[in-house]
């Protein structure tokens, strides 16, 4: 394996992986001119606000936690799902991207093909219509409020599975609202790329 370059705290990547992240970033910038994949379109911004922001979701996996299947809900332009697939591309793990918008799903499949990723597939349908995924990790960025994310995730979590949800300033209110219907152990991991938090939920159950 080639030398590792630090991407952010807890994540170092090979030169090949760094190249794939750059290629993906260029692909998003190209496609976002036609379909609205991200709000900010400058090259510098995409790296900080989207690539690194997604990479830190990967870094939020607890040390020693063993996983095989990661599902990313509402993947949109591939954040964090494609970034996770790139970071895990040198492992034997499986990533599932769930995205209901057909044009975005087409983009995701194009990115997977262009980057030569073999560890990731797209479910082009609504989360509500999925058969149980039995995922060890479920992520979702900018998809819904926390109580709704819990409802989306619960049927698809494997025993001992965890959720990773990046959140902004409204996190405290969303946590209170979610606790009215859901029980979970919560770890709040400060963002390295902005002023948000990654919420890590363990032991999610209804009630
Ligand atoms: C605001 S975008 C966020 C995209 C990406 N996660 C990001 O952070 O850049 C939300 C995405 O979720 C998708 N989406 C919304 N509701 C969904 C559902 N019920 N099932 C599957 N995808 C959904 C939308 O099509 C959209 O692409």
UniProtKB/TrEMBL annotation:
Keywords: Cytoplasm, Methyltransferase, rRNA processing, S-adenosyl-L-methionine, Transferase. It is found in: Cytoplasm. InterPro entries: rRNA_ssu_MeTfrase_G (IPR003682), SAM-dependent_MTases_sf (IPR029063). It catalyses: guanosine(527) in 16S rRNA + S-adenosyl-L-methionine = N(7)-methylguanosine(527) in 16S rRNA + S-adenosyl-L-homocysteine. One of its GO terms (cellular component) is cytosol. S-adenosyl-L-methionine binds at residues 74, 79, 127-128, 141. It is an enzyme of class 2 (transferase). Its main location: cytoplasm. Its EC number is 2.1.1.170. It holds the Pfam family GidB. One of its GO terms (molecular function) is rRNA (guanine-N7-)-methyltransferase activity. Specifically methylates the N7 position of guanine in position 527 of 16S rRNA. HAMAP family: 16SrRNA_methyltr_G (MF_00074). Belongs to the methyltransferase superfamily. RNA methyltransferase RsmG family. This is Ribosomal RNA small subunit methyltransferase G. The gene is gidB.
